[in-house]
Amino acid sequence: MSELLALFIGIALVNNFVLVQFLGLCPYVGTSQRLETAVPMTLATAFVMILTTLLTHTLYNFLLVPLGLEYLRIIAFIFAIASVVQMTELYIRQISPVLHQLLGIYLPLITSNCAILGLALTIAELPLHQAMVYAIGGAVGFGVVLVAFASLRERLQSEAIPRAFRGTPVALLAAGFMALAFAGFRGMG
Amino acid sequence: MLERTTRPPPEYEPLDWSSAAPTSILARIDEAGIVGMGGAGYPTVSKLASGLHYGTEHVVANGVECEPGVHADRSLMRQHLSQVIEGLHIVGHCLGCDQLTLAVADRETYRIFQSSDIADVKCEIVSDHPANGEERTLIKSLFDQTIPPSAYPSQHGIVVLNVATLFAICEAVRDGYRPTDRVVTVLDEDRWVDVNTSLSAFCSDESQMRLGSVATGTIDRGDATIDLTTNAVAHDRGKLTRACIHCGWCDDVCPRSLPVEAMLRSQQSTSPQDDLEPHFDACFECGACVVVCPSEIPLLDWIRQGKLEASARRLKQRALKRFERRNQRLTQHLSEETDAREARIRTRHEW
Amino acid sequence: MVHVMVALLPGIAVHVALAGWQTLVVIGATTIAALVTEIACTRSARDLADGSATVTGLLIGLCLPASTLWFVCLVAAIIAVAIAKHAFGGLGNNVFNPAMAGYAAVLLAYPALVVEFDTVSGATALEQLAHRGSTTIEEVSTTQAFGAFGAANHEWVNLAFLIGGLYLIAVRVISPLLPLCVIAGIGITAFLLDDGGSSTSHGSPLFNWFAGGTMLSAFFIATDPVTSPSNRVGIVVYALGIGALAMLIRKYSSWPDGFAFAVLLANCFVPLLERIGRTRTSTS
Question: How many CB atoms lie within 10 A of CB C163?
Answer without folding.
Answer: 16
